[in-house]
Design a protein that fits this description.
This protein has six helices and five strands; from the N terminus they run ααααββββαβα. With 141 residues, it is of the alpha+beta class.
Amino acid sequence: METVKQHLEQHGVRPSVQRIAIMKYLMEHCTHPTVDTIYSDLLPELPTLSRTTVYNTLELFRQANAAKVLTIDKRNVRYDACVNPHAHFMCRECGRIFDMEIDDHLKAHLHDSEHFLIEQVELNSTGLCEECQAKMLADKN
């Protein structure tokens, strides 16, 4: 796996202490965190960090295609360090968001167009995760 610094440099982002910390957090926490989550979790190690810095850094990452913005959660903007094509599933009960693989044929089809330059595709689904399904079945019995 590439290092955080390499990831930033490959996307044309100049590494700084705060940028490295935020990208490292995104890469290590595949929970699709919000700005507030990242800010709260990093504040103890970076006491000078502000929410504005986190937001602006994530926007820089988005513009450089070093991270994705997810709109699957209607209440919160979420972020994902994985910029490779994949889908997302959000559990309507617990609110967790999961990565879902998509096959190569679908990936090629989603980006293939004679008339448009497709820069981003979002493929989202919602329902119940395995844990919430099991909990609901247990509650019925």
